[in-house]
Each structure stands twice: as structure tokens, then as C-alpha cells.
Amino acid sequence: LQVMINLLRCEDRIKLAVRLESAWTDRVRYMVVVYTSGRQDTEENILLGVDFSSKE
């Protein structure tokens, strides 16, 4: 989780992180919903796919 947090900007927040099945045994895959407060106080969300080597 800390590695995913380090990928984000300081104003971004992880709302949800779900570990997904991976077709590769040496990979760990996550779906992450990231929230940030945008311009003019709008809420913005983005859905990211994040893959990690199991060695990380």
C-alpha cells in the first residue's frame, strides 16, 4: 500500500484499492480509485490499474 501512496501527488487520496487476479504468477495487480479536490472545489476521481512485480 505504501508503494501505491508514493506514486500519488501529495493532494491525492486513495479511496479504494482492490487486489485483482493476475494471469502472471510473478505479478500483483490492483485496481485503485484515487480522489482529489479539483479546481473550483470540484471532486475528481480516477480509476487506475497498478501492476507490481512480486519481487517489489
TrEMBL record:
**In which domain of life is the source organism classified?**
Eukaryota
Where the record annotates domain Slingshot N-terminal, the positions are 1-55
A GO molecular function held by the record? phosphatase activity
Q: Name one GO biological process term.
A: negative regulation of actin filament polymerization
Instruction: Quote the PANTHER family the UniProt record gives.
Output: PROTEIN PHOSPHATASE SLINGSHOT HOMOLOG 1, SLINGSHOT PROTEIN PHOSPHATASE HOMOLOG
Recorded protein name is Slingshot protein phosphatase 1
Species the sequence originates in? Jaculus jaculus (Lesser Egyptian jerboa)
